[in-house]
Each structure stands twice: as structure tokens, then as C-alpha cells.
Amino acid sequence: MRPVEIKKGVYWVGVVDWNIRTFHGNTYSTKRGTTYNSYLIIDEKVTLIDGVPGSFAGEQIGRIREIVPVEKIDYIVVNHIEPDHSGGLPELMKLCPKAKLFGTAKSKEGLARMYYTDWGLQAVKTGDKLNIGKRNLTFIEAPMIHWPDSMFTYCAEEELLLPNDAFGQHYATSERFDDETDQCALMDEAGKYYANILWPLGGMIARKIDEILKMNISIKMIAPSHGIIWRRDPMKIINSYISWTKNETRPKVVVIFETMWGSTDMMARKITEGLTDGGVEVKLFDITRSDRSEVNSQMLDAKCFVFGSSTHDNGMLSTMAGFLEFLNGLKPKGRIGAAFGSYGWAGGAVPALENFFKEAGIEQALPSIAVKYIPDENELKRCYEMGVELAKKITGKA
Amino acid sequence: MDKYRCTVCGYIYDPAIGDPTASISAGTPFDKLPDNWVCPECGAPKDMFEKV
Ligand SMILES: Cc1cc2nc3c(=O)[nH]c(=O)nc-3n(C[C@H](O)[C@H](O)[C@H](O)COP(=O)(O)O)c2cc1C
Ligand SMILES: [Fe+2]
Ligand SMILES: [Fe+2]
Question: Which of A122, A374, B14, B40 has its CA 20 to 30 A from that of A331?
């Protein structure tokens, strides 16, 4: 694939990783693959912004060579040091050892720990400018969105924002721009990215967007480090982020359970029927067979979480527990919840689920339902009614 | 005892209050917080705090 000129003299020199299927270890499923976007600006100073993983360094270098000899790179801007963006640096730096690096103080510290090499990175702060000839780059620190070193770069002359991981999606495509691709897939992946990586950082993201909007800079294009470049409607993704940071929810319920012999499953299906008949949107997942990062996406706009587990050694089942550990880190706010499950002699799973709600600050909307072994007709009716009651509460008809 | 401000989100660590969310009791000075203590608001590490 040839480099793609995204603005006059500004080239995409990243790579498309079509077949990656999990990201951040096994925490994020990348069914549609991903891309590592890197951008080369040809000016008096040849400047490279963002990088690729080590395994793709050769491909990126090849793409740069189609435009200029790599040795000609003067400046490298390191917006984020995570290995998916910095892994290619050692190989690249061998070819252009004189290139000057720019990043935050935290990025300097982090790179030293990752590569045990001192490339003499110059630390920059919010508002610092770098003249590269006809163009100027302005740096905007974005600490903890999502790592301490994170930074955005803005080029006023091109009205171009390079926010690295923010506004990205794990989405491998032959197209590079928002107006060339399937909008449903694009927004689905953008939302999944937000739910799984950025959800707990909502407060900071809202403040950062506010800070950028107050700078009164013109943004005609947003070129993130993963996925599609926003050129037709950059405000579309900014506005989506603004609404996600508000934690807005819909009358929607996500029911998640784990079962050994099927009793908790029976209960889950009855609750789901009650919710459906109560007129709210519902999604039901057996967590042992579901993709956890897809489940998180479904939870982002759901008003209510219903969790079920049977009891195993006095507590809940371990896949459910692992999922809740993940969810807890995402800090879902302003939700209501309910718990259910089957047990044999003394129980333990339902109290553990109730404890999770308490610690996560999720308000328990109804008393839990715990049944001994297999639910009888009456107990299944209670499950159905739990669904109907929850639906009423969510739609405000209770 | 000195208060410390999170440079990322502005949260103030007040030793007189401690950090109940992390079971840090009142009266714990900032430099006695464990190394893995993070800002309860934004998760920033200790070295991103400054004295106020
Ligand atoms: C999504 C995400 C969240 C992270 N959260 C934290 C965190 O809260 N605190 C921390 O110290 N490190 C955090 N890290 C950094 C990792 O722990 C760090 O990169 C570590 O070196 C990874 O080790 P591994 O290669 O064995 O997985 C996070 C990394 C990612 C990708
Ligand atoms: Fe990242
Ligand atoms: Fe990334």
C-alpha cells in the first residue's frame, strides 16, 4: 500500500493489522483488526508523528521510504509510549540516530524504562510550540488519558489534531477516512474503544475537550493513532465523546450470568422475558461464552445491570468474578442493579454480587432472588416479575 | 502537615482526612502514603502530585 496523503505534504505512513484478534493481552477483542497510524510531515524539518509496534517497524520504514529516505527524518513526536506506538522506535532510531524526539517528561521517563536507551528526548509541556518550517506544531499534554505520558499534537496551519489514542477505533480497513467507510461499523468500534479503555476517564476527557474547545482552534481533521481519520465530520466523534463522558444512559438492561447446572440460566431467561414484556431493550449474556469487551460496549449506555451467579465454594463463579473485576475498573456511574442466582445449601454468590453493587456505587433497585437448587414455578414467576418491575423503574412508570 | 494537589485532575490530598477510599487513615502524611497509592479521582501516581 502506498502512503496516503491526508493533507498536502502530510502523509499516513502507518500499518494495517488485519488479523490481530486480541489487544492489550486478552482484555480487548479486535474482531475487525486494527491499524497503527503514523504521520509524516514534509516541511523544512521532516517530522514523524506517532509510531507502530516493533513487529511492523519494517513495514512503516518501507512506507516512509516511498516519500523520503528515512535518514532525512529530523523530528519524531512521541505522543504516547505504549508499545503499539513506540515499539518500532529502536529500529527507526538506528536509521536516523540524529533525529530529535519530542514528548512529555513522563514519556522520557517511560521510554528509558522500556528501551534502556537514551535518545535525548526533549520534554515539552502544554502550549509549547515546535516550528518545522512553514508549519508549527503545538503540544497539549493529556496526562492519564490514558497513560501518564499521553499527549496530543496540533498543527494550526493544517487545522489538524493528532490525539494519538483518543478518538480512535480498532478497525482495519483499506480506506483511511470517515467518509469512505461503513458508519455503523465505525461508530460501533469507536464506542467499544471508549467503553473499554476510556470509560473510567470520563471526567478528565470532558475537561480536556473543554480545554481544547476553549483554545478556539480550528479543527478540520482529527487523525488518531488507531483506525479511521475524521475529515468529513470531526465534530461527530467529539460530540459522541462529550455524550459518553456525561454517562448518559437509555432505558436498556444488560443481564449477565454464569451457571453450572442451568438453574441460574433459567432465572436469567425469565428475568429477560419480564424486561422484554415490560417494554425495555435488554441484552442477555452468559459471561462464560461471551466476549467481555463486547459486553462492556453494551453496558456503556445501559441504565440497569442485572447480575446472576450460582454459588461455588461460598462465593460467585470465577468467570463472573473476573468480569466484575474488569467492570469495576471501568467505574460505571449512575446505574441501578439487581442480583439473582441458584444455590445448594448456604449460598454466597448473591451476597457477593450485592457487595459488588455496594462497592461500585450501583444502587440496588429490587431485593435479590436466591433459589435453592432448581427454581419452581413460583420462583420463576418471581423472576419474571423482577424483570417487569425493573422495566417500570427504568421507564419511570413505577 | 502539607496538602498535595494532583496536577492531573486537581484533587487535593489532605492528611487531616486521609483517603477513606483506599483505607488511608486520617493523619497520614503524603510521604507516608504507600508507593502504589494513586489519586482517587483520576488514578495518577504519587509523583504527579505537587505540594500546595
Ligand atoms: C488499558 C491499560 C490500563 C493500565 N492501567 C494501569 C494502572 O492503572 N496502573 C499501572 O501502574 N499500570 C497500568 N497499565 C500499565 C501496564 O501495567 C504496564 O504496561 C505493564 O508494563 C504491562 O505489563 P505486561 O507486559 O506484563 O502486561 C495499564 C495498561 C493498559 C494497557
Ligand atoms: Fe494506548
Ligand atoms: Fe494505542
Answer: B14
Catalytic residue among A226, A241, A258, A389: A226
**What's the CA-to-centroid distance between A82 and ligand 1, angstroms?**
9
Q: Do the chains contact at B48 and A201, CB–CB below 8 Å?
A: no
Separation of alpha carbons A285 and A268, rounded Å? 9
Residue A398's pLDDT band, with cuts at 50, 70 and 90, is low
CB-CB contact of A250 with A303 (8 Å): yes
Encode chain B in three state secondary structure: CCCEEECCCCCEECCCCCEHHHCECCCCCHHHCCCCCECCCCCCEHHHEEEC
**Is residue A152 over pLDDT 90?**
yes
Calpha distance A133→A157 (Å, rounded): 11
CA distances from A181 to A73, A173, A184, A241, B19 (A): 32, 8, 9, 20, 47
Please state, in angstroms and rounded to a whole number, the distance separating the CA atoms of residues A339 and A257: 9
pTM of the model: 0.95
A161 — phi, psi (to 5°)? Answer: -110, 130
